[in-house]
Amino acid sequence: MKTILNFVFLISMISNTFSQQTRIAKSEDLKSAYDIQDSVMIKTRDGAFISAMVVRKKGISILKPVILQYTIYVRDKGRDIKSLKEAADQDYIGVIAYSRGKRFSTDEIFPYENEASDAYDVIDWVSKQEWCNGSVAMYGGSYNGFTQWAACKKMHPALKTIVPYVANRPGMGLPMENNVFVNPNYEWSFYVGNNKYLDTVSGNDRQRFRKMQFKWWETGVAYKKMDSIDGSPNRLFQRWIRHPAFDEYWQKMAPYKKEFTKIKIPVLAFDGYYNDSQNSGLYYVREMQKYNPQTPVYVIIGPYGHFGTQVGGELNLYDYKVDSTAIINIKKITYQWFDYVLKNGQKPAMLKDKINYEVMGANEWRSAPSIDKMNNGFLKFYLTDKKSGKYYSLNPKKPIKKSYLSQDIDFVNRQLQNNDYYPDPIIRKEIDTTNGYVFISDPLKEPILVNGSFLGEIKAGINKKDLDIGITLYEVMPNGEYFHLSYFVGRASYAKDITKRNLLKPNQIESIPFSNTHLVSKQLSKGSRLVVVINVNKNPFSELNYGTGKEVIEETIKDAKEPLKVKWYNDSFIKIPIWK
């Protein structure tokens, strides 16, 4: 019996050893299955160098299309190589290129500024390699989404398609939104600009930058002095804030106006209703539909945030339980798209039309031929001065008699205003009513689908030359809770032309149009009511416009001696897009 047990033990040991050796062999085989070039240097036309990595399957002599990622984020090498191996496993060649000045590039780092030209040079180099069949496609999210559109500023014939996720558009979304500088990019400039990789120490030190923001707010020093409070010069921040208009500095970074007519390749874009920079990503789509409607641009958009979009959605978003059908396999759809464009494969099944969107509350996907055709009507409401319970009436009838609501803003007093517009949480039991004005509609007589971006026009008179406005849109559900639908933050002096400041005339009624709001699709219930909150933007999370007409970054608390007096006129209106 003992001999048998010893024999069994011996066989077991041999079997385990063999299994272990097999696993090691398989692991080594897996490593040897790829040809990895991790120290490629690509020279640009102006003499700079771009650091890149290339991954191919070994033993394959057939020329193949290339899937290119172009990024400023130099993360863990293993993570990036893994994504390149995914491309190789899908029968492509994977290439990742890092922005000028990053990784092994010895050049200086200037986010945004060189990507259009450098992306062209990278694509040119890739297309001429012995393993490339002459076709290049791009994908990636956030900054990597921006670099794809930057590559379209001057189209290279080898670029066949792009798949941007939540693409950034510098100057529109970040570092400013509707010409108001917002603060998230302040710390980001250290994160990507301090070294050749990523400064995770600075990037993760939220307490440091939060303390800086509130100290700036409390002391009332000029916005341009923010880095003196922090104690570390921020060269990129200083570079950006010199351009509050959407001027040539920003325009040259990506396609602008008629340059969209030259983009002849199909595009698949992903975005989210609660993506902070949604007006960046959808800017490109809208401009393509405006200047180049014949070029196929597809969109998949749903209840996602900035990071959630890039992984196909999250089950819980800002305490909101996301519809189950909204969760998608974004990587699978991306490669289905590449196969469709580059290999004559089948178009991804969920692309029923150009704009494909998930309807919150209905748990279903719908489609439309364009963003404008997501809706077939509007609910138009006037912001009246008549009371409706504890709020004011949001009324479809235009008031017969012109009147207004008064609001005084004391900038010396550091009470926060318009501090409640951010959609976190999406559903809340109460909203801040301590400042600004709240307007509420009558209960809906039937269910309505809100579909698109709300817009409108504010009629206001002020005693100064400028103001920053915040407008937030909610659904008050039958149970009394508030569902955050969308918002707008913008500068009045740029409302009619984002490229040129036009100061308001004191003590005159001015028309302030707005439209660049966050797109949403939401099924509203019978009995729900719509709520609009209007306010002056005054908080530590963006620059503070004191209204003097000087450059806002130079204004200080010394400019706060005279309070801002606003008259919100009752013929101001909002138009909410709906599908009947």
What's this, in brief?
With 580 residues, this protein is α+β, with helices and mostly antiparallel strands.
Q: What is the total tally of β strands? A: 30
Q: Which stretches are low in confidence, meaning pLDDT under 50 for 5 or more residues running?
A: 1-29
Shape summary: globular
Structural class: alpha+beta
Residue-averaged pLDDT: 94
End-to-end separation:
82 Å
Q: Can you summarize the main beta sheet?
A: 14 strands, mixed
Q: How much helicity do the residues have?
A: 10-25%
SS summary, helix count: 13
Structure description:
This protein is α+β, with helices and mostly antiparallel strands. Strands 17, 18, 19, 20, 21, 22, 23, 24, 25, 26, 27, 28, 29 and 30 form a 14-stranded mixed β-sheet that branches. A ten-stranded mixed β-sheet has the order 1-2-4-3-5-6-11-12-15-16, sandwiched between helices. A two-stranded parallel ribbon has the order 7-8. Helix 3 packs across helix 4 (143-151). The N and C termini lie far apart (82 Å).
